[in-house]
């Protein structure tokens, strides 16, 4: 199972919006609405911020939103804040009944 | 407090073995699907294995199938990962995680570091 494809890095200024893409295949992202996103700060455990493509767990700000079109999922952060600077990982369920992660995207808030 | 705490990592020679543990507290492990993931320092997350709530369905990533074995002790509320025939490329932080939402991991441990080197 090949890793999902994410851009290595994205950046934006405070208050702006950014979108991180996550591209897979019909055997993972395209086949199921089971895409999740995780935020990870250096030295910390990943934190679930989006499940089932677009659902935000309790406590996650509504500045975070998820979507999917075909084999590509997207995470959008609006109203960027300095505290959003972190690594973001996408993850999808697959036809093999396994999970597969993306390579991760480092978000820099300028 | 609801948490997962891993242990059992360390320095091991190529070809060696370790048993990694993931102790759960604040919830019952057997009520959830549980996963192991690894992360190389400075690199991304890689999914390794999962066990469903009743232990009847187990899956592995191709890269570790036949070398790694996931198991669970309900009495101790602990998840395990037996890692055998270790290679240099298996060096990573090994993290257990709970699937609290369908195909999403809502609780993660801090991980245990495995270093494979002679």
Quaternary state reads heterodimer
Shape of chain A: globular
Helix content of chain B: under 10%
Task: List SSEs of chain B in N-to-C order.
Answer: EEEEEEEEEEE
Could you give a short account of the major beta sheet of chain B?
7 strands, mixed
- Please state the structural category of chain A: mainly beta
What would you report as the Rg of chain A, rounded to the nearest angstrom? 13 Å
How confident overall, as mean pLDDT of chain A?
Answer: 97
Rounded Rg of chain B: 13 Å
> What fraction of residues of chain B sit in β-strands?
over 45%
What structural category characterises the helix and strand content of chain B?
mainly beta
Low-confidence stretches of chain A: none
pLDDT average of chain B, as an integer? 95
**Number of DSSP helical runs of chain A:** 0
What does the overall shape of chain B look like?
globular
